[in-house]
Amino acid sequence: MSEKKLAINEYLKADSDYLRGTIKQGLASQLTGAFSDADQQLIKFHGFYQQDDRDLRQERKAQKLEPLYSFMLRARVAGGICSPEQWLAVDKIASDLTESGSIRLTTRQTFQYHGIPKRNLKTLIKDLDRQALDSIAACGDVNRNVMCNPNPQQSSLHQQAYYWAKRLSDELLPHTKAYAEIWLDQDMLVSSEDTTVEPVYGSTYLPRKFKMAVAVPPDNDVDVYTNDLGFIAVADNDKLIGFNLVAGGGMGTTHGDNRTYPRLASDFGFINAEDTLDFAKAVMTVQRDWGNREDRKLSRLKYTIDKHGFEAFKAEVERRAGKAFAPSRQVIIGDRGDRYGWVQGLDDKWHLTLFIEGGRIIDTPSARLMTGMRAIATIHQGDFRMTANQNIIIAGVARKDKAVIEQLARVHGLWRDELSLSRARSISCVALPTCPLAMAEAERYFPEFMDRIDELQLANGLGQLPIVVRMTGCPNGCARPFAAEIGLVGKAPGRYNLYLGANFTGTRLNKLHQENIDEAQILATLNDLFAAYRSNAETNEGFGDFCVRTQVVSAVVDAARDFHG
Question: Could you tell me the maximum CA-CA distance found in the chain, to the nearest angstrom?
């Protein structure tokens, strides 16, 4: 029998000497602003991607220049919490070492930098390290940034949930010292001859990316069901006793390839809190050993579960964990939005959530967001919490400090009184000009698009109806568009696929309604649907639920069967 042909990334990982490759040599080369093709795959494990400015590609090609290469680096910040001192350093790095001069809050509760020249990478990573921050495993075929509900007003329960998010992040880091050797100039400690270097991952790591989240009901701002592995907190009198474990979520799909589909995580059962790590490692190692390493389009955990069957996968997880799942406990999954403005916590501290459109913190003529955040960080005595909706919480504010922080937020354009209920729940990916996968605009166009949505809702008397609207430039799903009541996914410049029918709480996927349509067609379609909703909606019915009930789209119950069917 002939040996299976693996995806090229599998050979690259196996031959990389535990993610070292020739990154150090590529970093030293001044002949190009890029890394080699092989190292471009390996640097993802170190937390960054090679990109170029697509707006300038043709101009530079005409000038016989290579593309204007730069790098996007994503930090690892479990649960999205950082101190004011860390924020000030993050701000300075953005100003001094990136071409974009901005901080981008992500949909996974961390921040990323865009436009980093290769010559600045090492300095940037060292500067992060001085603040106890890093980008290890923020990308690549490993467990990525672990999300956790940032709701600070549930102080006791949140701290217990955050403990597990942080511990999962730390315990499931790759053990290789390649990051420290290459970026922090530490001596080489182990090599590929040491087979114990990666006890969980092995020398070829996971077949594909792996995303994890901890949710504290009723909030579902982390979109727990869209993750490969989710832990839904179960409490008894504010004491965390365990989690309902869900697994097999993931947003990415490929246009025109019906073998691929988004999927929401399946409910496996209840686990005691003390067994969390055992079950997490069991799920990850089953995926490591059973996952598809021949075709990366089919490598995520969702396909592994569907290929082998839920019961078989569950049984193997229980075998490896040495424990059985108990029946899931009843929990209520509610809103996925953030609470804007001031909210008082149980510890008598106050917390201010600020809407950051597209997650982009930058100074512009209309709003000086970076300057404002810098001013707040200079005086703030609590912490900052990044949310999965690309927003920021100024957490732990004493009553006496509220007025000055609010004034700073207002003066610098961080406070937005006019925010509509739908815009408040909207998110988008970066897309053009830096993302190499983008087929259409997202972040740069989305604010204008949301202006049109706000106008349509007001014109139809639906200004008080919150609708989850999301946009991405491609079907990889970074802004979780397939879990949105209205999802726009880029198909070509200025054209999108329109998906409808997810529910408000994120427990049902949407489905394709119209393909490859432009803004005028999108708005005309939504205007008709808004008018129909105004006339025919049932009491307290969400827009996505209305679209399913009235058969605008059919419900996606089994993603493998229904999403394309």
Answer: 74
Residues 157 and 264 reside in one and the same domain: yes
CB 396 within 8 A of CB 113: no
The H or E element spanning position 214 is strand 212-215
Mean pLDDT of 354-380: 98
144 given a catalytic annotation: yes
Model pTM above 0.85: yes
Tell me if residue 209 is catalytic.
yes
82 is catalytic: no
Write out pLDDT tens, residues 474-484.
Answer: 999 999 999 99
The reply to whether 547 belongs to the active site is no
Q: How far is CA 170 from CA 105, 139, 167, in A?
A: 21, 15, 5
Angle at 174 between CA 173 and CA 175, to 5 degrees: 110
Amino acid (1-letter code) at residue 264: L
Q: In which residue are the tokens 């490598």 written? A: 299
Residue 447 domain-assigned? yes
In the residue annotation, 329 being an active-site residue is answered as no
Q: Are residues 367 and 484 in the same domain?
A: no
- Concerning whether 478 is annotated as a catalytic residue, the answer is yes
**Identified catalytic residue from 82, 139, 148, 429:** 429
**Is residue 211 annotated as a catalytic residue, yes or no?**
yes
Q: Which of 20, 177, 208, 211 is catalytic?
A: 211
Asked if 126 is an active-site residue, the reply is no
